[in-house]
């Protein structure tokens, strides 16, 4: 059975940290699940790391539905949250409910994530009332890239910190079960985490949160040159993959691959019996 919200909240109550990773397909989701990850996020970061866009805005509800289905088809244990992409929840509460409903019903997500503070509080409240658990997301909101003008750390002065704290409290009151704090100054993250009863999940926000989330491509070193400071390379897969591909090409060229054991020969007995 997949981790439930009470299970995750009990873990936080025991002062244990939550670990969350993004995943977008069955192969990686199965590996992360078998490794024991608490939570998987099918993030709209897929627009950048899978689809090659510059930002997350082009991601559609259909993209998130498809990738969430790939993940939930194989995950046995981890809790799965699906991200609500840009303009799938901002235009009206009704539209948000319909779209969140698709992610829960057709993709078997256990929760949805929405970026925003006070401005999405009514939407969060309506979704939660209807039985859709919502994870909030404040601080650096990638869907606001054109307002922000870049991926910059938020909450660096007291004024910004107060506004973030207010948004966090409003989201908690609206019914969010957890809030992602992205790209927030460490001291502001500490204040927000201390002031809430629900867990905070941090990315690029320091160690004070109740848990951490990373984009899988960052922590697995899948990009050769883009190595964000907030992440840590736990395995340098771009190096491993490049070396594997080059070795394969060399072996094909040198006729080392395929070897005898990689090929199947005709069954001589069958051939003879046909004569
Ligand atoms: O889309 C995503 O992967 C996210 C995480 C960075 C929190 O929102």
Folded structure, characterized:
This protein folds into 2 domains: 5-237, TIM Barrel, CATH 3.20.20.60; 240-273, no CATH class. Helices cover 42% and strands 13% of the residues. The protein is built from 12 helices and 8 strands. An 8-stranded parallel beta barrel has the order 1-2-3-4-5-6-7-8, surrounded by 7 helices. It starts with a helix and ends with a helix. The structure holds 3-methyl-2-oxobutanoic acid (KIV). 3-methyl-2-oxobutanoic acid is lined by residues 22, 41, 43-45, 83, 137, 180, 182, 203, 213, 215.
**Helix fraction by DSSP (H/I, runs of at least 4):** 40-55%
Give the domain tally.
Answer: 2
Detail the poorly predicted runs.
Answer: none
Tally of helical runs: 12
Number of strands: 8
Taking Cα atoms only, what radius of gyration do you get, to the nearest Å? 22 Å
Query: Order of strands side by side in the largest beta sheet?
Result: 1-2-3-4-5-6-7-8
Largest sheet: 8 strands, parallel, barrel
Q: For the record, give the distance between the C-alpha atoms at the N and C termini, rounded to a whole number.
A: 56 Å
User: The CATH topology of the largest domain, please?
Assistant: TIM Barrel
CATH-wise, what's the superfamily of the largest domain? Answer: Phosphoenolpyruvate-binding domains
Distinct small molecules: 3-methyl-2-oxobutanoic acid
- In one word, what is the shape? globular
* SS-derived structural category: alpha/beta
Which band does the percent of strand residues land in?
Answer: 5-15%
């Amino acid at each position: 059975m997949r981790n439930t919200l009470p299970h995750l909240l009990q873990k936080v109550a025991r002062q244990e940290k939550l670990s969350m990773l993004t995943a977008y397909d069955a192969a990686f989701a199965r590996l992360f699940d078998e490794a024991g990850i608490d939570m998987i996020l099918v993030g709209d970061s897929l627009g950048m790391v899978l689809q090659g866009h510059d930002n997350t805005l082009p991601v559609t509800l259909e993209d998130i539905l498809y990738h969430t289905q790939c993940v939930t088809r194989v995950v046995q244990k981890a809790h799965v949250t699906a991200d609500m992409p840009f303009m799938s929840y901002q235009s009206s509460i009704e539209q948000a409910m319909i779209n969140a409903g698709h992610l829960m019903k057709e993709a078997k997500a256990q929760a949805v994530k929405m970026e925003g503070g006070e401005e999405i509080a009514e939407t969060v409240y309506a979704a939660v009332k209807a039985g859709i658990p919502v994870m909030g997301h404040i601080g650096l909101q990638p869907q606001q890239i054109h307002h922000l003008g870049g991926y910059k750390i938020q909450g660096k002065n007291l004024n910004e910190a107060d506004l973030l704290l207010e948004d966090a409290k409003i989201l908690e009151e609206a019914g969010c079960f957890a809030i992602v704090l992205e790209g927030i100054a460490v001291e502001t993250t500490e204040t927000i985490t201390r002031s809430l009863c629900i867990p905070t999940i941090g990315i690029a926000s320091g160690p004070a949160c109740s848990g951490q989330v990373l984009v899988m491509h960052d922590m697995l070193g899948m990009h050769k040159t883009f190595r964000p400071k907030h992440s840590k390379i736990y395995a340098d897969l771009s190096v491993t993959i490049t070396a594997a591909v080059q070795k394969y090409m060399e072996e094909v060229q040198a006729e080392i691959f395929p070897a005898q054991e990689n090929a199947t020969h005709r069954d001589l007995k069958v051939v003879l019996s046909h004569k």
